Structures are given as structure tokens and as C-alpha cells.
Amino acid sequence: MAITRYGVEGGQGTGGQHLPFSRAVEAGGWLYVSGQTPMIDGEVVERGIVDQSRIAIDNCLKIMKEAGYGLEHVVHAKVVLTDARYFQSFNKVFKEIFGEHPPARICLVADLVVDCKVEVDVTCYKP
């Protein structure tokens, strides 16, 4: 089974920090997308939870597209929010984006190592 790594050169995090992991890894029809935050060009976009949620999910979708996967291939999502009060707003964005293809999901509240409100990762499958 071949393993394909996307972004093995590592991305750029806040403050220009080198990120020492792949953006995604594909093996046997599975694609594991690393956790995405509301970053554009290595900097967190300082906005509310709705905008940050859209950006974090969009960052996942861009990586999925690069690997040849679409929304219909997402089987599971993990979501970390920094405040439980963001749950309803995040759900609205999630439903807008995944409406016809809702994946299984876990959502939890925890501190993030990046100063933002949300982080999202997805697991996709395409036979």
C-alpha cells in the first residue's frame, strides 16, 4: 500500500514557525487531514467564531481538493472549540458546509496552542 504525504515540507505557522508535519496523509483510500485553524498565510484571522469556523473548514477543503477528495468523502470530523458557547454558531457553519454529506463528528472544548477559537480536522475515504 502506497502512502502519499501532502505538504511534507511543512507549512508556516504563526510568527513564521515551521510546522514539522504533513498537511495530510493518504493511504489505502483514506485521507487524514491535519488539524486546521483559521489561518491565512501563516497568520490567524482575528474574527468571530463564525468566520473562524468557515476559514478552518475551508482550509481542510483546500487540502482535500489537492488530494482529489470532496465533501462526499468526509467520514469523520474532529472539532476543538475554546469555549462551549461557540457550539451553536459552529454547528450552523458546519451544517451549511456539510449539509447533504454530514460526517460522523466529535466536538470538544479545550485550549489550543494557537490563539484562535476553533480547530478542525477531517478523515476522508475514497475507494
Automatic annotation (TrEMBL):
Transmembrane segments: none annotated. One of its GO terms (cellular component) is cytosol. One of its GO terms (molecular function) is deaminase activity. SUPFAM superfamilies: YjgF-like. Coiled coil: none annotated. It comes from the Bacteria. It holds the Pfam family Ribonuc_L-PSP. Gene3D superfamilies: RutC-like (3.30.1330.40). This is Reactive intermediate/imine deaminase. It comes from Veronia nyctiphanis.
